[in-house]
Write a structure and sequence with these properties.
Radius of gyration: 18 Å
Oligomer: single chain
Number of domains: 2
Structural class: mainly alpha
Helix content: 55-70%
Mean pLDDT: 85
């Protein structure tokens, strides 16, 4: 870890653990705000997810000058929320973003995040009528985090149970996903979302 990244990590821990209340968070401490967001998002269903509100929470940590955690952009912030167990969030990373942006005909990390959420909402409705996906129904449906992780596992070649990684084939694997999507005729502006 470089000294810059180490300093960013220390700064993030200090900011998140501070007992100072933050006006932008309704005078909650950072940890209490995160907890309140976890409670809020955990009470939602997949179909109730509001992409603008999800992005507002991400922006609070990644872009708002007063509340930003230095070193965290949209992907890391979304992943932070997802790693705390909030499955409404998904990480638009190197493996997920190209696939989602191909499906939505968009380009940015924010577009990819929006696409993951909106595709999960649309596809979750279809899963409600299929018994072979009962395991997803038992976990509340096709949450954005589940969709992101499925794409990640397929696109990264990083799914060996013994802990070894084989990332050298990941670019080819992503090309295969892209070609399969094109061959199936899915790319036809099917997922055009107005946010």
């Amino acid at each position: 870890m470089t000294s810059r990244r180490a300093n960013e990590l220390i700064g993030a821990i200090e900011k998140i653990c501070s007992q100072d209340t933050i006006p932008e968070f309704g005078n909650l401490t950072y940890l209490n705000w995160i907890s309140s967001r976890r409670n809020f998002w955990s009470s939602q269903t997949v179909k109730e997810l509001d992409t603008k509100l999800l992005l507002a929470d991400i922006n609070a940590m990644s872009t708002n000058k007063r509340t930003k955690i230095v070193g965290m952009g949209l992907p890391l912030t979304a992943n932070f929320f997802a790693d705390t167990g909030i499955v409404a969030f998904a990480k638009p990373d190197l493996h997920v973003t190209p696939v989602i942006n191909l499906l939505t005909l968009r380009y940015s990390d924010e577009d990819a995040f929006t696409g993951i959420v909106e595709i999960a909402k649309e596809e979750d409705l279809k899963l409600q009528n299929h018994n072979k996906f009962s395991w997803l129904k038992e976990h509340g449906g096709l949450w954005p985090r589940y969709l992101d992780r499925l794409i990640y596992l397929i696109g990264s070649d990083n799914f060996k149970l013994d802990g070894t990684r084989n990332k050298n084939k990941a670019p080819r694997r992503r090309d295969m996903i892209r070609q399969a999507i094109l061959d199936e005729g899915i790319v036809r502006s099917k997922y055009q979302f107005q946010i």
